[in-house]
From TrEMBL:
Bacterial bifunctional deaminase-reductase C-terminal domain location: 3-189
Pfam short name (any one): RibD_C
The protein's name: Deaminase
InterPro entries in the cross-refs: DHFR-like_dom_sf, RibDG_C, Riboflavin_Biosynth_HTPR
Signal peptide residues on this chain, from the entry's feature table: none
MF terms (GO), sorted A to Z: 5-amino-6-(5-phosphoribosylamino)uracil reductase activity
Annotated source species: Pedobacter quisquiliarum
Any GO BP annotation: riboflavin biosynthetic process
Length: 206
């Protein structure tokens, strides 16, 4: 049975991305600060099809486990537009459902990544992702507003956050607008690391 998950890095003061996001400035230019732990891992670069990274420990195992359990992705138009020009071919290796008002034919890449453009809401995207995932998990990739929509709809089963030891001071917060009474939350796992703290939460809808 598929679970609905998200897996996001944030700053210590809760920011998912910086200010002035655009395709020319993805994530507001803070990706290297928030995700430095990931860029340090061989598993991350293996997933992209490149050599790189200096470490292959608990962080790397976590990356591989998350990749292995994911069968489909959902993302917002803004995240897609920021990545479309720069992502390598076949980055996601699965079906990706993009929430948008734009009517567009699927973008079928070489390999196993296809982007589908969904114009009729998150429930439609979820239904299609479940079919594609074939029992694996559905990952809400981002951005923050898209994650918030799924949280507030009561659709998320668990999530992972990676708290970088930095303060950004401004930007886009991951949990802004969250319905605080929607779920009971339980900490399932804490993994310390040199560059982040991994936290896994289970959510039970009230």
């Amino acid at each position: 049975m598929s679970k609905v998950i998200f897996d996001s890095g944030i700053s210590l003061d809760g920011f998912f991305a910086g200010d002035n996001r655009s395709p020319q400035n993805p994530m507001g230019g803070v990706s290297g600060q928030i995700h430095s732990w990931m860029f340090n891992q061989k598993a991350f670069w293996e997933y992209l099809g490149f050599e790189g990274g200096r470490e292959d420990g608990a962080d790397g195992r976590y990356i591989r486990e998350t990749i292995a359990r994911t069968g489909a992705f959902i993302m917002g138009k803004r995240m897609f537009e920021e990545g479309e020009a720069s992502w390598p071919n076949d980055l996601y290796k699965a079906a990706v459902y993009v929430l948008t008002n734009e009517v567009r034919e699927p973008w079928i890449q070489e390999g196993t990544t296809t982007f589908y453009f969904i114009n009729n809401g998150i429930e439609s995207a979820m239904d299609k992702a479940r079919q594609s995932a074939k029992g694996k998990d559905i990952r809400i990739q981002g951005g923050a507003n898209t994650i918030q929509q799924f949280l507030n709809a009561g659709l998320v089963d668990e999530f992972f956050i990676h708290i970088a030891p930095i303060f950004l001071g401004s930007g886009i917060r991951l949990f802004d607008g969250m319905d605080k009474d929607k779920y009971d939350l339980q900490i399932e796992e804490v993994i310390p690391s040199d560059l982040t703290t991994h936290l896994k939460y289970k959510l039970t809808k009230k």
